[in-house]
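Hi U.,

Before I forget, here's the chain from the pilot set. I'm dumping it here mostly so it's searchable later in email.
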Amino acid sequence: MNLHRMLLERDRAGKPLRIALIGAGKFGAMYLAQAKHTPGIHIVAVADLAPDRAKASLARTGWPVERYAARTIAEAGRSGATCVTDDALAAIAAPETEIVIDATGNPAAGIRHALACCAHGRHVVMVNVEADALAGPLLAQRARAAGIVYSLAYGDQPALICEMVDWARAAGFAVAAAGKGTKYLPAYHESTPATVWPHYGFTPEMVAAGDFNAQMFNSFLDGTKSAIEMAAVANATGLAPAPGGLAFPPCGVDDLPRVLRPRDEGGQLDHLGQVEVISSLERDGRPVFRDLRWGVYVTFRAGDAIGEDYVRRCFKEYGFSTDPSGRYGAMYKPYHAIGLELGISVASAGLRREPTGQAVAWHGDVVATAKRDLAAGETLDGEGGYTVYGKLLPARDSLRLGGLPLGLAHGVVLRRAVAAHAPVRWDDVAYDSDAEAVKFRREMERKLAA
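Structure:
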């Protein structure tokens, strides 16, 4: 509420929020499409390892060439134009920058950029949920100590879920579960970039004609992205993963209160207060009726034993879908607009100094899990690849088994064989203990283990 009014005030005062966008891929491009229409902001820099790609994204989203013709960030600050650069750290350090958006998708880069923001006093909007799942609790802690905002990205599902959880709790409801929808079958855990397209209904001709990243698309299909996003939600809300990870129960919007309630009350939750992803497919492959494939949800319980009957009557009077007892209700949002909504996080961080979701503790972790029998000497290829998928576990269980975080399971060589669907452990791989991301993650494990 009132963010647009506050942006207009900054615009009229000639003091726009000054933003550096790092990463001009799909998410970044979607934000750029809206940023040029938003008052009270100035994109001072777009940083990408391939500057020509950044310029192509700006052109594709309707930016006139003269608007991104600044040769330096200092010139951009004076002229109101945008500088395209390949130096992300320089963009963060530039005095013209106030807010940094990391849309790289690279967890090691996300950690590096967030720490630079702490050093230079820049708010950071972490589109890079891979970095947040790997080390978000410690990054958020560092940001708070530095006096900056560290925020999940509105438009991406984790921040939207956090908003719904906050709504339910602020309205006095006990949250039963929260999460999102996706297309899931158990066999998808073994999907690879070579097998992914038929699952999406894409023909070879469609793939050849488009700009599709097979590994990225596969990370959505094989369960990895769901695990990453639900780790972020668990850490930001305190909702806990089930001990066995995500179950992906088939469920449509009308059945949310019935399915997403505790097992001892007839539902499919391990416990009250859980993160869970629901499938848009029945286990036999049939589509779920009124599925929530693109959306997010929260289920919640009517009040205490004394007031519960009254709230249940209210649910009925106002047309809520409920479980058979009338005790559990649900709210959902059928779509998420991804980068098109990112401006909410930018405005919230810059104007209110508030995150749209932020890790407050370490509850969930994503462990690299073998897609097939893996042999000693094989090199892991990370998110969406041929070797591993990400499985969500309670953080304490991940620590107990010494699980290798999915975000660090790229380019490391196995020291011993790992059976299909077994977790990969730190001890199973040869890793660089001096790498910044490894050292930061290890520090988080030591500091936040309790």
